[in-house]
Every structure is written in C-alpha cells, then in structure tokens.
Specification:
The complex is a heterodimer of chains A (276) and B (328). Chain A has 276 residues and is of the alpha/beta class. Chain A is built from nine helices and ten strands. Chain A has a single domain, classed as NAD(P)-binding Rossmann-like Domain (Rossmann fold), CATH 3.40.50.720. In chain A, helix 2 links the parallel strand 1 and strand 2. In chain A, helix 1 crosses helix 2 and helix 2 packs parallel to helix 3. Chain A is globular. With 328 residues, chain B is of the alpha/beta class. Chain B folds into two domains: 70 residues, no CATH class; 230 residues, Glycerol-3-phosphate (1)-acyltransferase (3-Layer(aba) Sandwich). Chain B has a seven-stranded mixed sheet with strand order 1-9-6-2-5-3-4, sandwiched between helices. Chain B has a two-stranded antiparallel sheet with strand order 7-8. In chain B, helix 2 packs antiparallel against helix 3, helix 3 packs antiparallel against helix 4 and helix 4 packs across helix 5. The longest helix of chain B is centred in the first third of the chain and has 24 residues. The radius of gyration of chain B is 22 Å and the shape is globular. About 2% of the residues of chain B have low confidence. Classes of the chains: A alpha/beta (276), B alpha/beta (328). At the A-B interface, helix 5, strand 9, helix 6 and helix 9 of A face helix 1, helix 7 and helix 8 of B.
C-alpha cells in the first residue's frame, strides 16, 4: 500500500491526480474528501468539496478509472414538512436553504449525474447514508446527540434513522464489487422517534420552541462560539427518512445493525469513553 | 463480512448494555409529568363529583396513572405508529366512542375481509377526532379487527405537538407516495379528500361537502385495484362549531385561525370537543372490475369517479340528516 498526497484545492490537482492514477493503474476510486461538519470557511469548503470533486471526476475520466464511488449524504434530500414518509432516490434534492455544506453536496450530486451520463463506461456510484452512528462516527448530528442533555424542538418528535459505521464500510465494499451505477440510500432497519432514542440512552431532552431556538442558535454560530448552525435544527424537526430498497436489490446491501442497535452502539461507546 | 462471529458477539454486548440502560431509565422515571398528572386529577375531582360521576374520576385517574408509567420505549412502524402508545390511549378513545359521542354504526356489512381498502370520508372538526373514531369503529366491526391508518393534511400534522402525537396514533401525512406505500404494505387507508377546506369550514356550511382535492386517490386505487369505501360521519361537525374563520391568520400560522365557542378563549382546553351524538355510515364499496387501469390517466374519467364517490357520501349525509331537526 502506498500513500500519496494531493491537495484538491490546487488549480492543477486534476492532472496531478490523473498522473498518479495512471501510474498506479488504478481501477476504482473512492472519493471521501469531505468535511464531517460545517464550521470551516464557506468558500474553502466549496473549493474543496465541489471544485475538488470536479478535479477528481476529471482525473478519473482522463486516467480511464473504471469506477468512482462518492460518499454523499441523505441530508441532501433536506428536512421538510412535506417530505413523504420514505424518500427514494428518485425524489428531488431539496437541501436546507441555509445549510450551505449540504447544498454543496447536492450540487456535487447533480454534477456527478451529468458526469455519469457523459461517461457511460465508468461506474459512478453515489452512497447516501442517513445519520451515521458508531464508536468512531463524527458529524454535526453525532456532536449534537452526544451530550447528556439534548436540545430538541418543542412539540416535534421526528422519526430518526441511523446507519452503523461498519455497515457503511460494508456498503462501500459492495459498491466496489457490484456492477451498479447511480445513487443508493443507506440506512439501518427501522425508524425510531427522537424521544424514544433519548429515553433509550437515558439522555435528557431540553425542548425549546422553534422560533426561539433558531434565534438562539444563530448568533453564537455567526460569532463562531456555538457548535450548531440554526439550519441544523430542522433536521430534528422534520423527518428525512430514506427508502433503502434500491441498495438492497441492486447492491445486495443488508445492514447488520438496525437503527436502534447503531444508536446503542454509539451511546455505549461514548459512555465507555467518559470512564477512561 | 456480515456473518463474522465478531459481529454477533458485539451485538450481544450491545443488547446487554441496552437492558442495563433501560433499567436505569425506569428507576428515574418521569417525575414532572407524574406531578402534573396528579395535580390535574385532583382539580377535576370536585367538578366530576358535582356532576354526579365519581366513577369518571376514577377512570381518569387510572388513565393518567397508566400514561405516566414509564415503560420500555416501544418500536414504531415506518410511519411512526406506536402500538404501545395507542394501547395506553385506548381507554380514552373508548370513552369518547362509547360515552362522549355515543357512536352508532351502520353499513358494517361493507367491511369485508379484504387485504387492502381505501376509505374516503367527509372531514369535520379541527383535530382528527373523526379519523380516530372511524378507525375505532372499523377495528370493532371488522372480522379480523383491522385498524385503518388515516391520512392527515400537512397543515395539521406538521404543527408543533400535533406532529409528535398524531403519527403515534396511526396518522400519516397525506401525500400520494405515503398512501401508495401503505396500500402496498396491505394496510387499510382512510383518506379525507376535502382536506383543510372541510376541516375549517364555518358551522353554517356543516355537512356540505367541499371540493375533493385533486382526486389523486382515484388513479391510485385503480392502479392498485383497491376498492373504495365511502364513509359518512354525522356529528363530527358539531364538536368544534366554527363561528368565524380568520383568514388573515394564514400569513402567520399557515392556516386560517378558527374561532369556536370555546377556542381560542379557553386556550388549549378550548380544543376539547363538544359531546354530540355521532353516526358513522359505511357505504357500498366501489370496485374496479372490468375497468382498464390505463383509464387512471384520463382526467375526465378520474373526475367522474371522484364526483361519484363525493355524491355517494353526500347522499348518505342527506338521508341521515333528514328528519333530524337539530341538524338542519
């Protein structure tokens, strides 16, 4: 195994990457160079996640790589009051109007769709996991849910759906083997209301009415003292549950952990960490 | 990779820690809710004793005790129906059904033992009491006690508090994707095509059926070959008589603010329904034998069927209301 370092924000990252891919006779590429949570400067994030991904796509095409797997997120469907109970891959992407990192990811998915149509010889696969949970998972959702008391939106109890980190790896493995292309939603079996999840974990819920919550979250986020952007709370207000039928039939994906088990695995591992 | 022994050991470990967690939760309980509930039952005691119904107080106390009793969080289905939550509220639903509204049923012979059925009813009242009562009636009358899932309009199911309660009782946001998924999962589905227009119509328009949405339910039922049962509810219109509707409020609330004799004057208490006498009538099912599913694409045909169903409900309503002087 060899390790190469390429900065995707460089103007000529594409030709450098293409050179490397050709030299290594690369057959498949997994693109996962994304930030785990917003908080980085917006322009830089866009530069890396969208423009950097364009470099990756072009490099793959130039080097004749047969397969490109990109890890996006189910959040690109957006948390909306008018979402159907289960979102399929055919559902339009409506990322939250203020969640710019998710908007970037949705833009990237659009670019990948166009790219895939232009390069029919390449298997372009987009994995869209819902909230990833597990001992090593880290995301805005994970950070928000790891405290002993969790801020929730008063009067709302959305259905949540989680995927265990090992199942994500498993899906990644399948995406590298199976002859598939397109987007695949990934999630563990079952859904649970947020209140039930908190009760299972012995966490306290701190409900705040939503007009107040958004205002409270906005200023600290702007001044970079708060962790959570106001837009995030809509993910705790409306459901964004995905349908995984496509991953099951085409990819052969069978999650080992259910939503509940993935959540408990996360909770238990966090508990262990606090004893250390 | 999935069959790896390491996985199953880890899962067992997880289950063990899960049960430990659960015990710790049961120990702490939910003390605030308990205190509030106890205070409320005490406050009601005097009133109910004055009314000469001390047994009602016992019932209420029992109910609240069961509600605040922390148990293991139950699993929910994909749309959030929580069987345990429903079972906990069942005594209240039964009370509303048997005593508060004294529901009478006719046409129960039309509730055949079919895998899936789409029921279409007239909408009345602000909160989905009508849906809960129809669900209760079907569950009682059906041979295998099937309980239909009911579709609720966006403006209600996405409001604070409604959003956290209605799905647990079997409500699902009304949209074609959800209805299709439920029917494909062999559920009985109850729809209210009048939507908001029906729920928030003023009292003077009671039992006057509003336009039936865009009728998306007709092509869906035709495509899946699901029979449609028209349902008429009489009595629901009186539980929240809407005297005035402030359409201005739509700008802030997303729906027009209704004014009833009790709401919003009494705050949340004003949402309590008035006791009226209810009748639920199940009409003859509409079946699709000999109709080409392709005709679901034909808007004129769809509109005709939609109107046919609307008329059959209107007919039942008219027949039931005839001779009923109080509801003229």
């Amino acid at each position: 195994m060899r390790f190469h370092r390429v900065d995707l924000t460089e103007p000529t990252a594409d030709s450098r990457l293409a050179e490397l891919l050709e030299k290594e006779r690369c057959e498949a590429l997994v693109h996962a160079a994304f930030f785990k949570a917003p908080g980085v400067e917006r322009e830089y994030m866009h530069e890396l996640e969208v423009i950097g991904s364009l470099h990756v796509m072009n490099a793959c095409a130039a080097a004749g790589v047969g397969r490109l797997v990109v890890i996006s997120t189910a959040q690109t469907y957006g948390p909306h009051a008018d979402n159907p109970g289960f979102l399929t891959e055919a559902h339009p992407l409506r990322p939250h109007a203020e969640a710019y990192s998710i908007q970037d990811r949705a833009e990237l998915e659009g670019l990948l769709r166009v790219f895939s149509e232009r390069h029919r010889g390449m298997n372009v696969v987009v994995l869209k996991p819902c909230g990833v949970m597990g001992p090593n998972a880290d995301s805005l959702l994970v950070q928000h849910l790891s405290g002993a008391a969790v801020t929730t939106v008063m009067g709302f109890d959305p259905l949540m759906q989680f995927l265990h980190e090992e199942d994500l790896l498993h899906a990644l493995q399948l995406a590298l083997i199976q002859d598939v292309r397109g987007s695949f939603n990934l999630a563990g079996e079952g859904v649970l209301p947020l209140s039930t999840l908190l009760r299972l974990a012995g966490k306290r819920s701190v409900p705040v009415p939503h007009p107040m919550l958004y205002r409270l979250a906005y200023l600290p986020w702007l001044s970079r003292t708060g962790e959570v952007p106001a837009a995030f709370y809509d993910h705790l207000r409306f459901g964004w549950v995905v349908d995984t039928a496509r991953a099951k039939t085409l990819l052969g994906f069978e999650p080992t952990y259910s939503t509940k088990e993935a959540w408990l695995s996360f909770v238990v591992s966090r508990r262990m960490r606090s004893y250390r | 990779m999935t069959q790896d022994g390491r996985y199953s050991a880890e899962l067992q470990e997880l289950r063990r820690s899960a049960s430990e967690l659960r015990e710790s939760i049961q120990r702490t309980g939910n003390s605030t809710l308990k205190r509030v509930a106890e205070g409320a039952t005490e406050a009601f005691r005097g009133t109910l004793e004055q009314l000469g119904a001390p047994e009602l107080w016992l019932e209420l106390q029992n109910l609240l005790r069961r509600l605040t009793n922390e148990t293991e969080p139950a699993a929910v289905d994909g749309f959030g129906l929580d069987q345990e939550f429903l079972a906990r509220w069942q005594p209240l639903l039964r009370f509303l059904y048997e005593r508060w509204w004294r529901v009478q049923i006719s046409g129960a012979q039309h509730l055949a033992d079919e895998p899936r059925v789409l029921m279409v009813a007239n909408r009345s009242g602000i909160l989905p009491y009508d849906a809960l009562m129809i669900a209760e009636a079907v569950e009682r009358e059906h041979v295998r006690n099937r309980r239909p899932r009911f579709l609720t309009a966006d403006w209600l199911v996405t409001r604070p508090f409604a959003q956290s309660w209605i799905p647990k009782l079997g409500g699902v946001r009304a949209c074609p994707e959800n209805a299709e998924r439920l029917l494909l999962a062999n559920e009985w589905v109850l729809a209210f095509p009048e939507g908001q227009k029906g729920a928030l119509k003023p009292y003077r328009d009671r039992y006057r059926l509003q336009r039936f949405g865009r009728g998306g339910f007709v092509p869906l039922a035709l495509r899946l070959n699901v029979p449609i049962i028209p349902v008429a509810v009489i009595g629901g219109e009186e539980v929240h008589p809407i005297l005035y509707r402030a359409d201005m409020a739509r700008r802030w609330l997303g729906f027009p603010l209704p004014f009833t004799p009790t709401f919003p004057w009494l705050g949340p208490l004003g949402l309590l329904p008035l006791p009226s006498q209810w009748r639920i009538v199940f009409g003859e099912p509409l079946r699709w034998t000999g109709i080409d599913p392709e005709r679901g694409e034909d808007p004129l045909f769809v509109n005709r069927i939609r109107d046919q169903i609307r008329l059959s409900i209107a007919e039942i309503l008219a027949e039931e209301l005839r001779g009923d002087r109080s509801r003229d």
